[in-house]
Amino acid sequence: MAKNKRIAAARSKVTHGQAYGLDEAISLVKGNATAKFDETVEISLNLGIDPRHADQMVRGFVSLPNGTGKTLRVGVFARGAKAEEATAAGADVVGAEDLMEKVQAGEIEFDRCIATPDMMALVGRLGKILGPRGLMPNPKLGTVTMDVKGAITAAKSGQVEYRAEKAGIVHAGIGKASFDEAKLIENARAFIDAVQKARPTGAKGTYLKKIALASTMGPGVQVDISAFAG
C-alpha cells in the first residue's frame, strides 16, 4: 500500500500529456525519485526511423560530461603487451582463449567488450552470445582498436552506448537521481546532441519526435522538443 501511495503521489505531480522544458522535467524526475536506493535517471528519444533498414540505424557512444554514476565493468580480448596494457588501464577481465571459454560457459563478467583487431577471429565465434546482448566489439564504435587504454578510459569515465530499438526508440541512463540538476541537464543535452548528430542518411521527415525522462521507479515526464528541433 505504501508503494502504491508513493507511485500515486509521484504521478500526481506530472500533468499527463504536458511537455515540460528540460530544466523543469529534470526537477520533476529528481523530485519523484523517492525509492530507497539511488535511482538512475533515464532518457528516451523516439526517432522517425525504421532500424530494420541499414541506412536508418542509429548507434554510437557518447561521453557524458558528468559520468553516469555507475561503475562499468570492461572485458578485453587481447594478448601479450596489449593484455598488459588493458590490465594496467583498469580492465576488469582480460584474456584470449581463456576468456572465450568463460563467455561460452555463461560467465559474462563485463558490461562493455573491447578487442584488439587480431582477436576478432576468436571473438567472432562468440557472436551468438555477445551479439544479442549488445556486447559484440565493433570497429565503428571504437571497441575494436589497438588503443586499448583509450577505449577502457572512455568506458570507465562515463561513456554510454545508445542503439535504436525496433520501434525507433533510443534510451540510456544519464546519471543518478542524487546528481545535481545542472549535471543531469548537461548530461541530457550531451546525449540528445549526440543522437541528433548521428542522424542516418536514410532518415526522412521529422527525426526527433519525442523525448521523455524518468527515474527507475518514477513516472515518465515528457520533454518539450521545440528547443531541440532542427
UniProtKB/TrEMBL annotation:
<comment type="subunit">
    <text>Part of the 50S ribosomal subunit.</text>
</comment>
<keyword id="KW-0694">RNA-binding</keyword>
<dbReference type="InterPro" id="IPR028364">
    <property type="entry name" value="Ribosomal_uL1/biogenesis"/>
</dbReference>
<keyword id="KW-0699">rRNA-binding</keyword>
<keyword id="KW-0820">tRNA-binding</keyword>
<keyword id="KW-0678">Repressor</keyword>
<dbReference type="GO" id="GO:0006417">
    <property type="term" value="P:regulation of translation"/>
</dbReference>
<comment type="similarity">
    <text>Belongs to the universal ribosomal protein uL1 family.</text>
</comment>
<comment type="function">
    <text>Binds directly to 23S rRNA. The L1 stalk is quite mobile in the ribosome, and is involved in E site tRNA release.</text>
</comment>
<keyword id="KW-0689">Ribosomal protein</keyword>
<dbReference type="InterPro" id="IPR016095">
    <property type="entry name" value="Ribosomal_uL1_3-a/b-sand"/>
</dbReference>
<dbReference type="InterPro" id="IPR002143">
    <property type="entry name" value="Ribosomal_uL1"/>
</dbReference>
<dbReference type="InterPro" id="IPR005878">
    <property type="entry name" value="Ribosom_uL1_bac-type"/>
</dbReference>
<dbReference type="Pfam" id="PF00687">
    <property type="entry name" value="Ribosomal_L1"/>
</dbReference>
<dbReference type="GO" id="GO:0019843">
    <property type="term" value="F:rRNA binding"/>
</dbReference>
<dbReference type="GO" id="GO:0003735">
    <property type="term" value="F:structural constituent of ribosome"/>
</dbReference>
<dbReference type="InterPro" id="IPR023674">
    <property type="entry name" value="Ribosomal_uL1-like"/>
</dbReference>
<dbReference type="GO" id="GO:0022625">
    <property type="term" value="C:cytosolic large ribosomal subunit"/>
</dbReference>
<protein>
    <recommendedName>
        <fullName>Large ribosomal subunit protein uL1</fullName>
    </recommendedName>
</protein>
<dbReference type="GO" id="GO:0000049">
    <property type="term" value="F:tRNA binding"/>
</dbReference>
<keyword id="KW-0810">Translation regulation</keyword>
<dbReference type="InterPro" id="IPR023673">
    <property type="entry name" value="Ribosomal_uL1_CS"/>
</dbReference>
<comment type="function">
    <text>Protein L1 is also a translational repressor protein, it controls the translation of the L11 operon by binding to its mRNA.</text>
</comment>
<dbReference type="GO" id="GO:0006412">
    <property type="term" value="P:translation"/>
</dbReference>
<keyword id="KW-0687">Ribonucleoprotein</keyword>
